[in-house]
Amino acid sequence: MVHDILSKSTTMSENSINSWLELVKTVDYNDACVELKKRAKKKKGSLVSYAKRRAKSKARAISIGKNETDSNENIVLLDIGTEDPFIFDELVNSYGLKYKNLHAINVRMYEGTNYGLLPEDTSKLKFNFKWYDGKKIPYNDNTFDIVSLFMVFHHIPYTEQQSFIVEIHRVMKKRGRLIIKEHDIKNKTSLNIIKFEHVIYDKILEENDGDFTPENIYGRSKRKLIELFTDNNRFKLLHHTKVSNNYKAYNRSFYMTLEKK
To answer: If we measure between CA atoms, which residue out of 21, 33, 46, 32 comes closest to residue 207?
Structure first.
């Protein structure tokens, strides 16, 4: 059963989507974690290539979303939830940003581990990296021209999402740009697929020893996310777009760019 699910989880034709969904409904997550643990080392190399390709699309989204009056070499940027260095290399090499102006944070629970594709000693990174408590962003008010948030928000508990938005708003300069990529989760089927994807991704990155709980995904639809970020007159939505992938209507993600008011 697990082997069948894993085989269908990476490449999937539209014709097989219904049978795949039936498998997801019956998956034993503990069994899946054991199987994925065995596969993690084999997958790690391909993950690097994937992360580098993904970095190109992220950097392009930042380039498109930035304030057109900002000079690239002077842009001060914060990436929240950083798990690899490749986006910063891409921003420097392809768009002329400076490593000294690039900042990254991730939650302290991973400090001292080989988290994702980051080195265990993050002081060796070319950009500025900090671990933080997941609550208060460790920077002063009005610091950043750009904040990027790529596939992070669905990990924030529903009860903490508003305070997280307030923190992002606090560290951004006026008219700064917030660039987000997120899942557009419209129904329970979409949520179940994304939960299962995270079991797979978690094991590939070897982030823990099999205690990942797929229930800890706090997804929202694109419409609801836009409402959350534009509520209380904090941000103005500038544009948004869809990103298609293998899962068609079951799992769509999108970019959106907002401006701090």
So the answer is: 33
Please spell the DSSP secondary structure of 5-36, one letter per residue.
HHHHHHS--GGGHHHHHHHHHH--HHHHHHHH
Q: Are 75 and 89 in contact (CB under 8 A)?
A: no
CA torsion sign, 50 to 241 to 63 to 77?
Answer: negative
* Domain 2-260 coded CATH 3.40.50.150: yes
pLDDT digits (tens, 9 = 90+) for 192-241: 777 777 766 665 555 544 444 555 789 899 999 999 999 989 999 999 98
CA dihedral 171, 175, 180, 184 (to 10 degrees): 120
Query: Does the pLDDT of residue 90 top 90, yes or no?
Result: yes
Model pLDDT for residues 184-206, shown as the tens digit of each residue: 988 777 777 777 777 666 655 55
What separation in angstroms does the CA of 112 have from each of 83, 109, 115, 143? 14, 9, 8, 27
Helix axis angle for 29-65 and 188-205, nearest 10°, is: 90
- State phi, psi for 182 to the nearest 5 degrees: -150, 165
Choice between 94 and 116, residue whose per-residue pLDDT is larger: 94
Where is 194: in which H helix or E strand? helix 188-205
Q: What's the CA gap between 222 and 205, in Å, rounded?
A: 27
Round to whole Å and give the CA distance between 75 and 177: 11
Q: Are 155 and 218 in contact (CB under 8 A)?
A: yes
- pTM for this model (two decimals): 0.81
Nearest CA to 61 out of 227, 205, 179 is that of 179
Q: Can you give the residue ranges of every domain in the chain?
A: 2-260
| CA 258/CA 261 separation, integer angstroms | 9
